[in-house]
Amino acid sequence: MNALLSSVSVDADRGRPILDAATREVIGHAPIQTVEELNAAVAAAQAAQPAWAALGHAERSRLLRLIADDIDASAVELGEIITHEQGKVGGEGEAHGAAHWLRAAADIALEPQVLAQDGDSRSELHYVPLGVVASIGPWNFPVMIGVWHIAPALRMGNTVVIKPSEYTPLSVLALVEIFRRHLPEGVITAISGDREVGAALAAHPDIAKIVFTGSTATGRRIVESSANNLARLTLELGGNDAGIVLPGTDVDAIADKLFWGAFMNTGQVCAALKRVYVHESVYEPMVAALAARADAAPMGSGHDKTNRLGPVQNPDQFAIVSRLVDDARERGARIAAGGEPAADLGPLFYRPTIIADVEDGAAIVDEEQFGPVLPVIKYSDVDDAVRRANGLEQGLGASVWGPDADAAVEVAARLEAGTVWINQHGGVDPSIPFGGTKASGYGLEFGVEGLKAMAATKVIRR
């Protein structure tokens, strides 16, 4: 057990076993914390917040950069924990990515905005801290998304209480341990608990803001829980991102980018490509190209850096993936690649799967698979493809693929999604705002807009 893991794992009689996603062996024990401990953490955060806010942007940013350096220095150990818990290939890369995003949050300028000035009269819009921010995180990118929540909140002078996913608590506890080395007591606290603790955090009367990344169903429950305290919300919820491949597209030119837009992190990405509509003129070549890449993609333990795909993170998600593929097969869909567990690799590995000859209305199209499966759907009319892409309740991301960028942008303008990529899918940038529409949530993260989302507005007139 590495030193960072040892610092956050507790004795077996005081904790809950956490399993390696690939081998299902116990890697450590997460503390079982209670609502009472949550209440104490919120009280400590509330007490620490005024002094933290009083430090000012420059000093808070200096400390965040210092923490980013420490995350980079600890990336091997932190990455090992991520790969054990989540299963991904490249846990160390996620750790370095988190440090990069932390520096970005520290470096972004946010100045008061002059609204009006007339002689001696001047009106300015200022952004001031909210108070205590609650972060409720997912299991697919536990450290990276943890930093997406924490960094702008701290930068804006708030304090943070974070509850990690029950599947990946140790990596987040380790991340927060690094933060705590450099911050005053109470500025950030991680609470490892069950759904009761998460519900209590969302409903806590002293929480000013809730940031949540996860499923639409859980997001709706958080909205209900937050009603009494009127906490502000940023919700990045489920996605069933559609891609549209236009006629005339060079299949070989886009197949790699399209495949990895769907299968990055073994398909366990909110904004991964989840369904792709392909024009009939290039349909069969595209199915063949994607199937060839699925068959060739190296899959196995995330600790072996020659692999590109790892396991499905947990048994519940593995069951969803299996059910959706089996349902498509029973409907008569063509399994062009994969379509079965890779039991020789471990209990939660599922072969990368390409499903052809399937239509809207099938579960594999209408439901978010969040795993290594991509349905490929034939269309003949672009207007019909746009209608079908917009036909579901999710609206996180989408993409358009084709040789004419201007034509692709015209299609993109008609898609109902928070971000539409052209000839790519899923890329995010710390300076570019990101958020969903419809049932994929609301509020923006990243960039200046992400900082503003962690603040209250105050107009000062003189």
Automatic annotation (TrEMBL):
Is Isomerase among this UniProt entry's keywords? no
Alphabetized PROSITE patterns for the sequence? ALDEHYDE_DEHYDR_CYS, ALDEHYDE_DEHYDR_GLU
Q: Which residues form the Aldehyde dehydrogenase domain?
A: 16-460
- Domain of life, per lineage: Bacteria
Keyword list (alphabetical) reads: Oxidoreductase
Which residues participate directly in catalysis?
E236
Single annotated GO MF: oxidoreductase activity, acting on the aldehyde or oxo group of donors, NAD or NADP as acceptor
Family to which the UniProt record says this protein belongs: Belongs to the aldehyde dehydrogenase family.
**Protein name per UniProt:** Aldehyde dehydrogenase
**What does the organism's lineage look like at the top?**
Bacteria, Bacillati, Actinomycetota, Actinomycetes, Micrococcales
